[in-house]
Each structure stands twice: as C-alpha cells, then as structure tokens.
C-alpha cells in the first residue's frame, strides 16, 4: 500500500541525574565531593533514506523513543550518554507539529539530516558545587527532562513536471512511454492511486523527473474523492502538464476539463497558478478522420495566455518528442532548486534548563537547613535587612517550592530555618 501521510509520537531521552558522593579513602577520611555528572539523553534524528518512497512503515510503528542518559556515579564517574534514535524517511517528507500544523522540517534537497528533538542534558554532580561556604554540598543537579511531541509526516512527491488530468485521459500511458516508470494501466477511474515517478532522458544529460499525479475530479480541492491526498503532490513540481483527451473518447470537453482542473488547483493553493503550464492534447490517433477542430479549439482558448498546446498520441508516440524537448527547454531556464517548505517552529527553542539543585533538610538539632547554588546567589544580591528585600526572598522560596518542602518535613510556627549563616523563625 502507498502511504503518503502518518502520525507518530517521538520522545527524546532524559538526561541522567548528577550524583552525590564524597571521596572516602583509608588515608583521606574527609575527602571532598566526587559525585559524577549524568549522561546526556539521546536525540531524535530524522534522516533521508533514498531507498524509501512511502511512509508505510509508520503505519505499523507509531512510537519512537530515544534512550535516557545514565546517572552519574561516585569517584567522578560520568554517566553513559543515551543512544540517539535515527528515524529514516523518504526524500520529500515534511514534518509537521500535529497540534499547531506548523512545519518543523522539510526533508528535501540538501536537508538530509535534522535533529528534531534534542535529548536532555545530564545533571552536574555535587563535585561542581563545593564553595568556601559550602564545602560539603549534599545536592546534585537533576538531568534535563526529555522532550516529547506528536508529529505528522507528509510525503510530497519531488518532480520537475507534474502530470494532471481527469481519469482515463492517458497520463499513465504517456508516463510509461517517455520514462522508465511502469504504472498500472487499466480502463477505469482512479486506476492510479499513488503518484508514479519516472526519469525522462534527453540528449546532453538534460533529463528531468516527471510524476503522474493521480486523476483529479471536480471538487477535489474540497476533499471530494481522494482530492486532498492527491493535490499535495503537485506543490513540489515546477511545471504543470495537462493531459486531455482530444478525441473525447468518454464524451468529455477537453477545454472544460482544463478549466475545471485549474479551478481545483487554484482553490487548493493559489500559488500553483503561477507555475508554467503546458497542454498535451492526447489521443490524436483516435480523432475521427484526422479532424483537428478540437485541437484548434484548445489552442484558441489557451495559447493566447501563453500556454503552449501539443497534439500527441501516447500510444503511437506522435508529437511526444517535440513536447519533451519543449519541457526540457522550459526547465533549463528555471531555477534548479526545488520548492522547500520553510521551517515554522523549532521544538528545541525555549527548552528550559534543568532546575538548579537545592536541599531542604532537618538537622539533628531540630533546625531546618536550606542550601543550594541558586539560593546562595540569591542571598548574595538580596538585602534581607529591608522589608522589600525580605518579601522578595520569601516569594522566591515559595515560587521554587521550598516552603512546600519545609511543610512536608513538618515545620511548625516558631521553628528555626537556617540558610547560609542566616537564621529565621518560621511563621506561616
């Protein structure tokens, strides 16, 4: 089964926690802190695999989770980093944030590898927190949390020329004649349920990629039939090639068919109407007695607006060579870069740092001791002798959950709180 969209859950690895330990050797009874740092969590990395052409694999597996980093150890042992998770996708895959619909990455062109979610940083061990006033730090830094996200993957075919037209106008036959593609061909509507790509080889290495976009019907831009699923593939193409049934085998009006398809393209994405268009009036081998009045009618309708019309027969090959060389000349005068969808969000921006460590403990003397690097810095620039400064410090303790921890330890009104040489009486 061809699959051009999928929704999956991705999660980076959590950073390992820093360790609290102290150097203890036979001749060093009171050694300093030697807690090691935690390892970094694994990243979630998307990589283009040129051998893939569908998103079918993502229908069988929906969750992709990278490894966590290991915690630090004693004797300054660093925790092992979590292994990165590699997610392989076909070229042309766009990664959207499922909630907002914004583009996270377009895996096309030169963008063949991108870190979508970064793993959490490992926390620092207590060896980093020894100071002149805190020589025995009983705390370490926790590892940074993992990041998780639901993303939507969409595969948009990358081709220079996109074939559009109603079912049974001969697009698959045309593609099989001019390229190495082998599409299924049969006489019923929606024969082609997935885009077929092929390479057209012209003289002098002037080849280009052509894609048979599945047959469109009126109302496709509103989701009728499989319209939305098909229309997305035309967004990558540089030239739109209309294939119409000039012989009106099914009684259709080729001029009206082109008008309908252009209306659907414009309704889906107005930018598509700015792309160069070419018309291939197919099945001229089936015209009654060589009557070319239909061809002249198509030319009179569209050539004045700059849309070139080529009478062809995909069955006999008549007129096909002239059409291909015209398409090649058009492409030679265009930019070589394919249309890349711009990044609209980065899940790794504003990724909060780990909370700096602190400890709240009840001492043997019945005091409540608070310590930690951020608390020590806060005391350094807060004037506790002023009412405003003291209120600011109280607010800091509350917002960081320190007052809640004191209550969990059973602090009562009138108990003493000790913070780096300062002592306070606690009152709720």
Automatic annotation (TrEMBL):
Entry GO CC: cytoplasm
EC numbers: 3.6.5.-
Domain OCT intervals: 350-428
Keywords linked to the UniProt accession: Cytoplasm, GTP-binding, Hydrolase, Magnesium, Metal-binding, Nucleotide-binding
UniProt-recorded name of the protein: GTPase Obg
Top-level division of the source organism's lineage: Bacteria
Family from the record: Belongs to the TRAFAC class OBG-HflX-like GTPase superfamily. OBG GTPase family.
GO biological process, one term: ribosome biogenesis
Intracellular or extracellular location(s): Cytoplasm
Gene Ontology molecular function: any one: GTP binding
Subunit structure: Monomer.
Annotated residues for binding of Mg(2+): 172, 192
Main location class: cytoplasm
Natural source organism: Parasporobacterium paucivorans DSM 15970
UniProt keyword Flavoprotein present: no
Limits of the OBG-type G domain: 159-332
The protein's role, per its UniProt record: An essential GTPase which binds GTP, GDP and possibly (p)ppGpp with moderate affinity, with high nucleotide exchange rates and a fairly low GTP hydrolysis rate. Plays a role in control of the cell cycle, stress response, ribosome biogenesis and in those bacteria that undergo differentiation, in morphogenesis control.
Cofactor(s) required for function per UniProt: Mg(2+)
Keyword NADP in annotation: no
Domain Obg stretches: 1-158
Transmembrane segments: none
Binding residues for GTP: 165-172, 190-194, 212-215, 282-285, 313-315
């Amino acid at each position: 089964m061809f699959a051009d969209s999928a929704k999956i859950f991705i999660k980076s690895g959590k950073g390992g926690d820093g360790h609290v330990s102290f150097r203890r050797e036979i001749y060093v009874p009171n050694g300093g802190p030697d807690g090691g740092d935690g390892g970094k969590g694994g990243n979630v990395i998307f990589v283009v695999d040129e051998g893939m052409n569908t998103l079918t694999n993502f229908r069988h597996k929906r969750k992709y989770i990278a490894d966590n980093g290991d915690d630090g150890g004693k004797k300054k042992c660093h925790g092992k980093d979590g292994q990165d998770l590699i997610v392989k996708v076909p070229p042309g895959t766009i990664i959207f944030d499922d909630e907002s619909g914004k583009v996270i990455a377009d895996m096309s062109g030169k963008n063949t590898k991108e870190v979508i979610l970064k793993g959490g940083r490992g926390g620092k061990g207590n060896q980093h927190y020894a100071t002149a006033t805190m020589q025995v730090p009983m705390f370490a830094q926790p590892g940074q949390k993992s990041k998780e996200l639901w993303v939507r993957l969409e595969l948009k075919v990358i081709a220079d020329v996109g074939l559009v037209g109603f079912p049974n106008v001969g697009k698959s036959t045309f593609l099989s004649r001019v390229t190495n593609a082998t599409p299924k061909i049969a006489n019923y509507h929606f024969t082609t349920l997935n885009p077929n790509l092929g390479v057209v080889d012209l003289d002098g290495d002037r080849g280009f990629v052509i894609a048979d976009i599945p047959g469109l019907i009126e109302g496709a831009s509103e989701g009728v039939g499989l319209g939305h699923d098909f229309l997305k593939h035309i967004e990558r193409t540089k030239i739109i090639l209309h294939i119409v049934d000039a012989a009106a085998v099914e009684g259709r009006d080729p001029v009206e068919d082109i008008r309908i398809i252009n209306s659907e393209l414009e309704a889906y994405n107005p930018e598509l109407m700015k792309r160069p268009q070419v018309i291939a009036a197919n099945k001229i081998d089936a015209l009654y007695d060589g009557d070319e009045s239909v061809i002249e009618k198509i030319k009179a309708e569209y050539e004045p607006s700059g849309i070139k019309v080529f009478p062809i027969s995909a069955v006999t090959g008549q007129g096909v060579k002239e059409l291909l060389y015209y398409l090649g000349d058009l492409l030679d005068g265009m930019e070589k870069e394919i249309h890349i969808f711009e990044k609209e969000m980065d899940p790794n921006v504003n990724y909060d740092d780990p909370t700096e460590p602190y400890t709240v403990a009840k001492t043997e003397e019945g005091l409540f001791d608070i310590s930690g690097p951020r608390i020590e810095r806060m005391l350094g620039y807060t004037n506790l002798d002023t009412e405003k400064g003291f209120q600011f410090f109280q607010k800091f303790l509350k917002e960081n959950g320190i007052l809640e921890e004191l209550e969990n330890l059973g602090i009562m009104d009138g108990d003493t709180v000790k913070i780096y040489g300062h002592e306070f009486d606690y009152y709720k």
